[in-house]
Structures are given as structure tokens and as C-alpha cells.
Amino acid sequence: MSDAATLEAFRLADSFLPVGTYTVSYGLEQFVADDRVTDAEDLRVLLATYLRRQVGPAELVALRAAHAAAREGDVDAICAADRRLAAVTLAAEFRESAQNSGARLLSLQRDLRDSDIFERYADAADTGDAPGNYAVVLGAATGLAGIDARAACLLCCHGFVTGLLGAAQRLLSLGHTDAQRILDDLRPVMTDAVEDSADRTLSDMTPFAPLVDVLAADHERAQRRLFVS
Known about the structure:
mainly alpha; 229 residues
């Protein structure tokens, strides 16, 4: 990749990016509340499940489709990937969180980058033709920035894991060293998730993590919540 694309990838992977992902735990809060995740090892296993069973077969597939469509200037294909991802995401909180973060990222990119693709995509989101999921917006943004698809998928995995590690530090007695150890241990899992997504089409977008979906539904009805999901 060019230096400009590499630096753009660093920017998009930075927790400083103002898209609100620090407000979500994607069900982790309920796993902690139910004593299903009590320590660093439990957390590592859960994050590996997220990567293998949800992020890889769903978000990364949509990201790849949006990445390719953006490079071709095909907004209709971006919207198709967006709608498909929303359709296979069962938990209402997960859909809402992904769409809120996606809206913020799309707004930010429109402010920073002059692109007809972003404008047309935003119009589609405004009219209800596209949900505006974060992974799809990220796919379009990385495609337009010249970041290659594999790097964009790794970026997505890294951002997802670091976001949940940040949430875990507020929910568990998890030190910075433990968080870094988990992040390091999950590198092969991230790579596997990226490779698994490479040959999938939108019709092969098949996330399957029933316990995550059940606890996400429980979290929606929880009386006390630190995170919105």
C-alpha cells in the first residue's frame, strides 16, 4: 500500500476515532453479569468465538463486498451488502450499535474526504435504502483509500477486539498487560477469520453464535446497564 493508505489505516484503527465504539460491549456486559466471563482466559475464549462465529462470517464478508463495490463506484452493491448484514444480525442491540457507529464514521469520512460515493451512500442511508452498518462503511472507506481488502479486514478485527478489551477493563479486573496478552494471543484467530471470509459471497454470510444472541437479548431487558449493547 502507499504511505497515504497505510496512514489512513492507522487512523481508522485508532481508538481516538470518534465513532462511539467505547459505549458498546456487544453482549460482553451480560456475559460478565451472568458470571460466564470472570477472568482473562474466559474473555480470550469469548473473543475468539466472536471472531470465528460472527465477525469472520458476517462483518468481514460485508466489508469485503463494500470494499470491492466502492472501488468500482457501485453504491447499489454497497447498499446490498449493508442490507444483507443487517438481515443476518439477530440481536437488535447489535444492529443499532453497528448502525450508530456506522453513521458516525460515514459522517466523519464525508467531512474529511470529497467523494461522490460517500454522498450517494449517505443519501441511500437517509432514505432507508441502506442501514449504514459500521463494517460496510469501513469497507467503503478503506476501498476508497487504497487500503487493500485483507488489511481492511485485519483492521476491522483489531478494532473490534481492542474495543471489547477496553469494555472488559471497565467490567472486570483486567490489567493492561493481560489485555495486551489477549490481543497478542488472538492474532492467529484474527488471521483465520480473515482467511475464512475471503471466499464467501453475501449469500454465504452465516454468523452462528446462539449463546451470544441469547445473552444480547437478555441485555436488552436488563434494568442496569453500563453499555448500550
